[in-house]
Amino acid sequence: MLWAGGILCFVAYGLTPTDPSNLYLGVALILIVFLTATVTYFQNAQSEAIMQGFKNMIPPKTRVLRDGEWKSIEATKLVVGDIVNVKMGDKIPADIRILLSKEMKVDNSSLTGETDPLLRTVECSHPENALETANLAFFGTLCKEGEGLGVVISIGDSTVIGQIAGLAAASTSEQTPLRQELDRFTKYISKLAVGLGILFFGLGFLVGYSALTNFVFAIGICVANVPEGFLATIPVALTLTAKKLAKRKVLVRNLDSVETLGSTTCICSDKTG
Q1: Alpha-carbon span 131 to 121, nearest angstrom
Q2: Cα–Cα distance for residue pair 268/79, rounded to 1 Å
């Protein structure tokens, strides 16, 4: 809407160059658009940078047995059937089945919410529940104590974490109430501005003005109905709110969700968050 208003201002200035006010207003509208886009971009880029930190769940290197030798390779090059060695402090490079455990304990809090280290053994303690059985260790979890050997049974999207990420990516996103209201308001103002412009364009002929004068006047009516501060005020207000939430350890990835989060009274979650 502001883009259209700015372009109409330049058109009006081209038709009546003796009046520089249209030029100034057009430049102001375009600057507002760029300023708002810049603020929104940097806020979203900051959130994206934090989200990129989750990629650190992938260990850069892992020890694997290949061709009868222990080699250090990138975890992304593991394949199903590889034998890997996991020591205290290592992140599990893939979903593995334990072949040898030397008091190996893992932290499964990212999956189950259990913060206590869990002992891994070669025995299948819960065949009906893979997350609870003692002979499996999952990608992204941390080896807190001991050492062990395991055979890779799942990699990439086939891991438990990968399946969870796939479900999250496949979920459909709906427009926030704020976005719905903004779209409705924008359509209403646009129809009102165009309607009034056409009305006054026709009324000008009844008064006796020329077509050019009526056209410039209609453009002025349309631009006058554009709320210039509308686009700048909302992103700035949402950004300030997002920064306040960030100080309280709340990451806002989408600015539009700030309004929805602000009206939330209760968040229901399991222990994994």
Answers
A1: 14
A2: 38
Separation of alpha carbons 103 and 105, rounded Å: 6
**Region of residue 78 (left: phi > 0; alpha: psi -120 to 50; beta: else):** beta
Of 242, 256, 238, 243, give the one whose Cα is nearest residue 182. Answer: 256
Which stretches does DSSP call E strand in the chain?
61-66, 69-74, 83-87, 95-107, 118-119, 136-137, 142-154
List, as one string, the DSSP characters of 135-165.
Answer: TEE-TT-EEEEEEEEEEEEE-GGGSHHHHHH
DSSP letters, 225-265, are TS-TTHHHHHHHHHHHHHHHHHHTT---S-TTHHHHHHT--
In the chain, what's the furthest Cα-to-Cα distance?
Answer: 97
Report the alpha-carbon distance of residue 136 to residue 120 in Å, rounded.
7
Q: Which amino acid is at 216?
A: V
Q: What CA–CA distance (Å, rounded) separates 98 from 123? A: 8
Query: Quick check: 223 and 197 in contact, CB under 8 A?
Result: no
Structure confidence by residue, pLDDT tens digits, 164-208 = 877 766 666 677 777 788 888 888 888 888 888 889 888 888 888
Q: Annotated catalytic residue: which of 90, 95, 256, 270?
A: 270
With tokens 């208003």, the residue in question is 5
Cα dist. 181→17, 30, 45, 57 in Å?
38, 23, 25, 38
Give the burial class of 175: count Cβ atoms within 10 A of its Cβ; 0-12 exposed, 13-18 middle, 19 or more buried. Answer: exposed
Per-residue model confidence (pLDDT) at position 143: 92
Q: Which two tokens stand for residue 53?
A: 């930190």
Active site residue 19: no
Give 152's pLDDT tier (boundaries 50, 70, 90).
very high
